Amino acid sequence: MKQVAEIFSQGEEIVCGQTVDSNAAWLSQQLVELGFTLKRHTAVGDNLEDLIALFTEIAGRADCCICTGGLGPTIDDLTAEAVSIASGQPLQFDAQVFAEIQEYYARRNRAMPEANRKQAMLPQSAVRIDNAYGTAPGFALQFKRCWFVFLPGVPSEMKQMFTALVRLQLLQRFPLQPDCLVTLRSIGIGESAIQQCLDGIQLPEGVQLGFRAAPDEVQTKLLFPGDFPESNKQACVADVAERIGAYVFAMDGLHEQQGDLLDVVAAAMSAKRCSLALMETASQGLLAAKCLGHKWLARVEVNLDWGRNTGAWSGQAVADDLQPIARVWAEQLKAREQTDFALVQLYSGSAEDYSDKDKTIVLYNALATPSGVVSTQLNAHGPLKHKQNQAALLALDLLRRYLQNKCL
Amino acid sequence: MKQVAEIFSQGEEIVCGQTVDSNAAWLSQQLVELGFTLKRHTAVGDNLEDLIALFTEIAGRADCCICTGGLGPTIDDLTAEAVSIASGQPLQFDAQVFAEIQEYYARRNRAMPEANRKQAMLPQSAVRIDNAYGTAPGFALQFKRCWFVFLPGVPSEMKQMFTALVRLQLLQRFPLQPDCLVTLRSIGIGESAIQQCLDGIQLPEGVQLGFRAAPDEVQTKLLFPGDFPESNKQACVADVAERIGAYVFAMDGLHEQQGDLLDVVAAAMSAKRCSLALMETASQGLLAAKCLGHKWLARVEVNLDWGRNTGAWSGQAVADDLQPIARVWAEQLKAREQTDFALVQLYSGSAEDYSDKDKTIVLYNALATPSGVVSTQLNAHGPLKHKQNQAALLALDLLRRYLQNKCL
């Protein structure tokens, strides 16, 4: 029997549409992975009657509800009061919560506003959930059928508290058998092309295959039942990864998380103590901006003239293939800057092609390495900002492939 | 008496968190502007019983509900069936809907799958809503207290149908008096500082004041009743804008939309046919990346050495104030590149300060103009990426202030 869970979000800014409720989606994914059946999302504004009615409804039909928002110090933060009235549990002063709020302000050399005292008032049976990054503590309590967990609406605080504390509490409280999700993260290949790679594959019974196109990558998801044998799982994942090929830059869910494309590149560059010089055209500084804080990036040139003076490349017969130019420039850049690697990005296509979401531009990346030059030629589609992001990521991906020994 | 509205979203992908429900926020904004009071958002999956229960609930408590999703041809698209059962109205074949679906396929030279026949079955009293961009028609009907409007879940189709058809139908059906929302968009000043600027202001009766901190700006919102006199409105907005001062870069809701900070700068730079040379340190290419597609950006330098060699600036007595250096460099850059403007961004603070979300870095921007140099000294707080974005925007904002004649 699966446990039924709901998500509840409080706030006028959500109900009136000023804020898109991304917390609900994030929490739902977490609960699905834990093994809950997700039934409903609800959002209401800062109205005491609406809140009381809603908590009472949910208390009768769900086993677990994660609630975000309404824990702040101002008069429109009504969650604790509404829960107290709905469940008939009086609010009590929690000395430890109060001490933590005082400490939060003390660390910042600021006086605690009197209004924050309110955040230390929790319903009688509430279990406190510490908030390491803000003043609003969370809490949890049983009300009729449902275990309610209340977290702040600020996404960074909510996610930190869920990951560090709530997740484990839920696993201890509920008889859950979490499925095991393995995610193969790829770049440079679309969802339908991946589906073709996997055409005809025989997955073991009970294993579910899914796909998700995120802005920076495509994810292939394999969901294994909690009791699936480990060695069979490894073999199944290896089979899928091999079929997709060098596009896969990371796998999550088998060992430790490897992070996104930049994390993967950064880990290898730091481990090998390598340095990179970079010349951007199509991405116009975006790749350098993404690398902020990474010391292996030694030199950046943003070449604005390339696109302007050569917007006609694609229309003229000057150069069908810009790879030779990119390769020579990469070698020159590496020699000039005396770095271990030099990455040069060129593109063909006019400014109009770049801006037109229905037109394609061609990206030419060349990477000069200690053992010669490697290069790629790839297309970027879609609106301007999407093409720009693809240009930055696909240049970085050439370096990733070299570092992972996956260059053809 | 305000009309109460709700938003309902159907789909497993929403309830399980694979898709963030941005439709709900968009529709809420539209309804608020029309004059509805938004009370609740709900999302459920593709389950007939859950859908019937929910439609019955909403029918008893709301005057209007906009529903998205569940109108497709597949077996998990259950909306029409659920509404039919809940309201006791049998499904009927709508010949015109069927003809339109057939035509959709005919235009694309594709055979209509038999499954699509289902989309022509609408509850008895339903009013059809044409879909110019897809096969799923929408429909609307009265069920108890509530006027339900059903639209497809695909955002582009939903928005087109709402804007072209539903909006007007709602204005005709409900006694609405749309409020008038004026938004003052500012940068470089926090929400609480704006509140202090407005301390003691006497707003006319019925005018509501609100704030919203977006990633790239802080918005001050003035909501005027629909029948508020125009000249008083202008005076009230002018008073608020003057109190906030030069931080305001745009005002929406009075005349045409001016867009975000970059839009405002780009419009002025293009109109005056000016060019800009830019040197970035703290934002490391992010400002150049934001300016993609704008030809007035003539030259970009990303200076990585600044932060590395001078991480100790803040610790040493070398330079308490980097403004003189930034000003000289801006003049030199302008002379070298022969542009109308040259913008130089420097900062003090070590790499550790930059990465530490609890530490502050100081940004020094200097702009060389045809009539001399102007400069600012500002703080950036928060996590790395937030500081980087602030650094890019605050540099751009110096140019905006000069272009709007708001430099001190």
TrEMBL record, chains A, B:
<feature type="domain" description="MoaB/Mog">
    <location>
        <begin position="6"/>
        <end position="173"/>
    </location>
</feature>
<dbReference type="InterPro" id="IPR036425">
    <property type="entry name" value="MoaB/Mog-like_dom_sf"/>
</dbReference>
<protein>
    <submittedName>
        <fullName>Molybdenum cofactor synthesis domain-containing protein/competence/damage-inducible protein CinA-like protein</fullName>
    </submittedName>
</protein>
<dbReference type="Pfam" id="PF00994">
    <property type="entry name" value="MoCF_biosynth"/>
</dbReference>
<dbReference type="InterPro" id="IPR008135">
    <property type="entry name" value="Competence-induced_CinA"/>
</dbReference>
<dbReference type="InterPro" id="IPR050101">
    <property type="entry name" value="CinA"/>
</dbReference>
<dbReference type="InterPro" id="IPR001453">
    <property type="entry name" value="MoaB/Mog_dom"/>
</dbReference>
